[in-house]
Design goal:
Blueprint (H helix, E strand, L loop, with lengths): L1 H21 L12 E9 L5 E2 L5 H14 L1 E13 L8 E14 L5 H10 L19 E5 L2 H5 L3 H12 L11
Antiparallel strand pairs: 1-2, 1-3, 3-4, 4-5
Helix pairs in contact: 2-3
Length: 177
């Protein structure tokens, strides 16, 4: 997950640098100002990674399993890349963070409610098979950690990574002197 977020950020950064070079770098700098990438995984009670469900029966079974085990964890890795002002190799700074949130499903979820949720298709394209930011919130009894991490982008952690990448240690500060 951390490697995936890092590779997404670096690939986007390189693509933007190449695009800027092909445009002639009209603003005097080839690099984008900031690239943010993230990757979220849902981990079941026994350490299994829960991908996006591939079918309705798999989707129902996944949510039933989450209900049966009650608690699972959601991890999001955030990677940010920005150009360095100095000529230090590799020419950019990369910072990352990983956020973890524990999610407990409601014990009283009925199979009928799970099937009805699956029929909405809301969670069909989401790791773990549900979206806490929508109707899927009815599946969740409690979280420990940040809600926005379960959505897929932990804002406080992301802002901290942005701060570190835009103001890296060891880089000269133009305001000093």
């Amino acid at each position: 997950m951390l490697e995936t977020a890092t590779q997404k950020a670096l690939a986007s950064y390189r693509r933007e640098v190449e695009a800027s070079h092909s445009r002639g770098g009209s603003d005097g700098r080839a690099e984008p100002a900031l690239i943010i990438a993230a990757d979220t995984i849902v981990v079941g009670a026994f350490g299994e990674i829960l991908e996006k469900p591939r079918s309705e029966p798999e989707h129902v079974a996944m949510l039933q399993m989450l209900r049966a085990h009650r608690t699972h964890r959601v991890f999001t890795a955030v990677a940010c890349v920005a150009p360095l002002e100095s000529a230090r190799d590799p020419g950019y700074v990369l910072e990352t963070a990983v956020e973890e949130t524990s999610v407990r499903f409601a014990a009283d979820l009925t199979d009928e409610l799970i099937v009805a949720y699956v029929k909405t298709r809301e969670g069909a394209d989401k790791a773990g098979g549900y979206g806490i930011q929508g109707i899927g919130s009815i599946l969740v009894e409690k979280i420990e950690g940040t809600w926005d991490n379960v959505v897929g982008l932990p804002l406080r952690a992301t802002l901290q990574v942005i701060e570190r990448v835009l103001h890296p240690e060891g880089e000269a500060d133009d305001s000093e002197g």
